[in-house]
């Protein structure tokens, strides 16, 4: 049984294919993330729907946001270009947080 499971779940792709797969997964995540944000903003701000109609989508969006933050903190990656955040990054994050969560 163990042998069957090992063979069934064995990785059969090389590093380049794995990197391509990770890139596709990342693009899919960000497409879903920003489309969900746009959907919530349109329903809440433009259409002025009551919160009961968009609170579920907002909860999913926040779960994705918290996941992304925790995952990046866990592996120590803050941006694609730098390994550690700088004072400018802290300022931007603080201002963004104060705008969205007054």
Task: Please identify the structural class as seen in this structure.
Answer: mainly alpha
**Unreliable runs:** none
Instruction: Determine the number of helices (DSSP H or I, runs of at least 4 residues).
Output: 4
Element-by-element helix/strand order: HHHH
* Overall pLDDT metric: 80
Instruction: Return Rg in Å.
Output: 19 Å
Distance linking N and C termini? 56 Å
How can the largest sheet be summarized? none
Helicity level: over 70%
Count of the domains: 1
Which properties best describe this structure?
single chain; 102 residues; mainly alpha
How would you sum up this structure, described in words?
The chain has helices spanning 2-8, 15-46, 51-75, 87-100. The protein has one domain. It has 102 residues and is mainly alpha-helical. It is built from 4 helices and no strands. The protein starts with a helix and ends with a helix. The protein is extended and about 55 Å long.
Secondary structure topology:
Elements: H1 2-8, H2 15-46, H3 51-75, H4 87-100
Helix pairs in contact: 2-3
Can you summarize this structure?
By secondary structure, this protein is mainly α. The chain has helices at residues 2-8, 15-46, 51-75, 87-100.
